[in-house]
Amino acid sequence: MSEHDVQREVSELQAKSATAARIFDLRRIIGGLFVLYGIIVTIAGINPSDSSLDKSEGVNINVWTGLGMLILGIFFLVWLKLKPAPPVEAEPPEE
Hints:
mainly alpha
């Protein structure tokens, strides 16, 4: 294998590594889960039962918690969009 082939393979692996780092960024995972759970909890709180309102002293806690989760999830996703993960810096090959 020539040195050019080795350098090309290294650059391909670095590109794959950077792509994997962006895909598995924790902000994407946390934001997505909070948005998903926020939607579920908000939908559950749209039509509350009388017993659940009595337990929470008249406050529809599912709606407020769901909206808070939605806001937090959207914050994480916007943060990811505005400040993406920096690319991985490659070390120059030693000779």
